[in-house]
User: Fold this.
Amino acid sequence: MNVFMLMLPGIAVLALVGLGAFRWALKSGQFEDPKGAAARILEESDHPG
Assistant:
């Protein structure tokens, strides 16, 4: 039980970091066009990258 009490602050910090990263991804438009990205990977192009 003592180990859990020591780990609890770390778990809370990691959860907040994950939530912050998810909110950043939402605000920066990472999830705007998922079907377009899936189609673009199938297109052929002459230049790499």
Remarks:
- The longest helix spans residues 2-27.
- The chain has a mean pLDDT of 86.
- The chain is about 65% helix and 0% strand.
